[in-house]
Amino acid sequence: MEGLQIRKDGIWVPIKPLSNAFVINIGDMLEILTNGIYRSIEHRAMVNSEKERIFIAAFHRPTMDGILGPATSLVTSQRPALFRKVGVADYLNGFFSRELRGKSYLDVFRIQDEIGK
């Protein structure tokens, strides 16, 4: 059943479902942890008034007193850290208290290069 959409180039694009398949959306925390190797995708679920579909959201997070940042094994001179480190509690407090302004919360932790890319 259709219902999942992702944002691509500022446009919401419907995703055609595959029969008997699971869709796993990688969250922002995993993008930070993998130093951008796995990308978080902005997505939304749409209601279909004609057909039922099952949507289950499951969330996993590190311990609240932990530190969130790129895994040291994934930071090299060829691939420097893309995100700064932050306490998990601070990250979650900021995430749940932010206002939606069309900018990803992930961008708050992105490290900018010297010319601001």
UniProtKB/TrEMBL annotation:
Residues 1-62 form the Fe2OG dioxygenase domain. Keywords: Iron, Metal-binding, Vitamin C. It holds the Pfam family 2OG-FeII_Oxy. GO terms for molecular function: L-ascorbic acid binding; metal ion binding. Gene3D superfamilies: B-lactam Antibiotic, Isopenicillin N Synthase, Chain. The keyword Heme does not apply. PANTHER family: OXOGLUTARATE/IRON-DEPENDENT DIOXYGENASE. This is Fe2OG dioxygenase domain-containing protein. It comes from Lotus japonicus.
